[in-house]
Amino acid sequence: MSNTISNISSWFPPQTAAPSQNSSPRGQEGGFSTSLTDAIDQVEQVHTDSQQQVKQLLQGDRQDVHNVMIAVEKADVAFQLMMQVRNKIVNAYEEISKLQF
Which in 4, 16, 41, 45 has the greatest CB count within 10 A? Predict the structure, then answer.
């Protein structure tokens, strides 16, 4: 089975980040919270891009309805994926909070 997340990540434009002062010695940055924040930022960027394309289409600046619809669907799928990840995180938190130490 292929890695679905890596296939979806190809939809997002690569982001260049400034070197972090809090980088770990292994070269990894921030960990889980940084990865989650970056993913949310990418979803927001895809949504913003689709909104701009729809606005251009409505103003008459674009003629390619197909590409605009593809951008809107990409934003929708990215948002749905983000919500599913959020749901899994909430479920994991609830399961951990039920544990007795």
Answer: 45
